[in-house]
Every structure is written in C-alpha cells, then in structure tokens.
Amino acid sequence: MKDSAILKSGITLAAIAAICTALVAFTYQVTEKRIEANEQDWLERSLQPALSGLLYDGSVTESKIIVPPPHDLPGSDAAIIYRVYAQGEPVAALFVVSARDGYSGPIRFLVGVDTEGIVTGVHVLEHRETPGLGDRVESAKSDWVKQFDGRSLVDPDPGGWAIKGDGGKFDQLTGASVTPRAIIKAMKDTLLYYDTHRVEIFAEVPAESNKEEEVP
Amino acid sequence: MTSSGFVDRLKTGLWYENPGLVQLLGLCPVLAVTSSFVNGLGLGIATLVVLVASNGLVSATRRWIRAEIRIPIYVLIIASLVTCIELIIKAWFPSLDRSLGIFIPLIVTNCAIVARAEIFAARNPVGASLADGFVMGSGFAILLMAVGAFRELLGQGSLFARMDMLLGGEPMRGLVFTDGGWLLAILPPGAFFSLALAIAAKNAIDRRRHEKLKRAMPRRTRRTAE
User: Fold this and answer.
1) Among A131, A156, B36, B221, which residue's beta carbon has the most beta carbons within 10 A?
2) Chain B nearest C-alpha distance from A151 (Å)
3) How many domains does chain B have?
4) ipTM score of complex
5) Residues 75-94 of B with CB under 8 A from A
C-alpha cells in the first residue's frame, strides 16, 4: 500500500471512530438519568422482601455500610449491611451476603434481622442453582424461604439451624439438599455475626458516597 | 426494489437462508437465551434493530471504505450500535436487561451481523441493504421466538410468561398449562435438542416439497411435449 493510501485509511478510520463515539456518547447522555433511577429503584425494591411488616422511614440504601474482607460474615467478598431506622431509632439491619457452598457458584441473598435478632425476611438475589431443583429458593418460585421469617438464634437454637435430614428444624427442597444447606449455614453465620457486632453495626457512619452504588 | 423482489427476499431470509437454521450463524444466543418466549423475542428484536442499522451504515459508507480496513470499521459500527441498544434497553426495559444480561452486549459477536455486512451491505445500495437486514434479522428473531416458545412450553408448562418485561406493568404469568414441566427442556441440553428438532423439521419439509416437485415435473414436461 502506498503512503497516501495508508494516510487515507487512517483518516477514514479516525473519522468513523469519532462518529461512532459521538453516537454512543449522545445515547449515554439521553439514557444516563433513567438508568441511574432504574438502578436505584431496583435496589430499593429488591430490599423490600426482606423487610416485611416493618415500618421504616426514608430510603434504606442511604444507610449502607460496607464490611471489607476478611470478616466473619458468609462469603469472601465485601459484605453490605443496610441499617433500617424508624423515627431515628434503629429497627433492623439488612445483610447482603453470599453462601459460598451452593451447588453451582455463590448464592447472593438478603437477610433482614430486627433489633431483637429475629429474622424479618430472606430473599435470594442471585444464584446459579439448577432450574427446577435448587432454584426454588427464589421467592418467586416457592415459599421455601418463608419458613425463616420470625426465627432467631433461640428459635431454634444454633444446633437446630440445619435441614431436617441433618437433624435440624428446617424443610429441605425435594431433590435438592445442597442449596438449602448452604443457605441455612450462611444464615446462621449471619445471625451469629449480628449477635456479636450489633453495637458496632449501628454505631458506624454510613459509607460516604452513595454514588458508586453497588448492586447487591 | 419491487414488491415481489421484497417477497422473494423475505422468503430467503425467513426460510431458504435463515441465519440460524441454515447458515447456523449466531448460535450462541440461540442456545443461551431461548429458555422462554419473552427472552427470545427481546433478544430477537435487539438483534434485528442492530442488523438493520449496521447494514444501513455499512452500505452508506461503502464508497469511502478501502477493502483493507473494512473489518475494523464493521466492528466499530456494530459495537457502537450494540452499546446504544444496550443503553436504551437498560433505560426503558430494565427487567428485560436483567433477564438477558450479558447476551445484549454479546450481540457484537453475533457473526450473522458481520456476515451480512460483508456479504451484502458492502456491495449493495442502502435501500436493499436495509431490506436485507430486516429479512435476515426477522428470520433470526423468529427462530429465537420459536425455540423459546417450544422450550418454555415443555420446560415450564407455560407460554408468553413475563411479557411485562417488554410491555411494562405488573408481572404476567402468561398462559399456564401445567405447573412445572420437563426440566431438561430449559437446561442447556434442551437448547441443543430443540435447535436440532427445528433444523430437522425444516429439512423434512424441504425434502417433501422437493419430492413433490420432482413427481410433478415429468408430468408437466410430458404434457408440454404432447
């Protein structure tokens, strides 16, 4: 190829790259606000199921704290805790944790615990369990996670935090015991953590910037 | 382009040269997202829009693009379009975005799109290229929907569930025939079986037609000879 041809190709390529970038930048400008609102909306909405029956004020996501690893909560990534307040008083804490020993990859889920240590709700956010078997831990697919509502470390005692097949108090899922086992173990660890760290959790100042919101 | 020309082209895109069924291009999305009808429809429409727009742009710029740099330019155009579509879906169809996930950005790697740019749009005027993008994209989208509907019906016993991801509003359960279904159909092997059945069905129909034609042919030639 002659020098002039190379130059010409370079210019064409640069021009098209500039046009394409402008197109993407324009679309980004137009959609940015809506996408941000959607993300925030989705986050708030996904926290709801774990707070059933609780009255609280404002947006839960503003009171977020991030617990960097290593920590005693389940999962090896940073854990997220949201504090829930009603009229300035703490009423509950929401944990976003992951159970590592699921059937296929980590199971990310929400556990809501009120100040008495009683579970207000459990909601699975993300998993890769087998469709039709382990995926019934999703609230949309079965009521399995409902059995934890109102439970705590005294009801049943820590030894009872296992599936019935292992001598515990909780139902398993037909055809799937690995997934329930992983979730129950992670819940027990979360409750134990809450039991020992309750004061610290509510004393901590929220993680400063809410802008780099991580989606749980 | 005449209307009969367009009908011929439509037949080509939907049947004779269907990108998924015949050319076997872009199989990754066909296999991965077709666990339900609405997923197939969503990705089908997204792919269709990208294909029409990329064919149009490639065709409009074909005079200025030297053969040596055409591939990087196709990639640039397709990647930018896909990014725009992804942002639009995130903004207006957030739950569809959550359901399709990584497969929207992966439209970039759908070789059906770059194949149409190279084979057709680079050599034809804008109008014809847009039409080609439309028929090929439709062929691909219809295959995605058909496989999605088939797998959803067998695997979950429902049809058109979660259409709210596209239409908005409350979660819809669609038509529910049974509670639960044949698990294998929504697992990855089900995707391969379903696609294989679709290809086999197409081939069977083609063969039957061909034989009918063959049987009809000699008679006709006889008649003209008389």
Assistant:
1) B36
2) 30
3) 1
4) 0.77
5) 76-77, 79-81, 83-84, 87-88, 90-92, 94
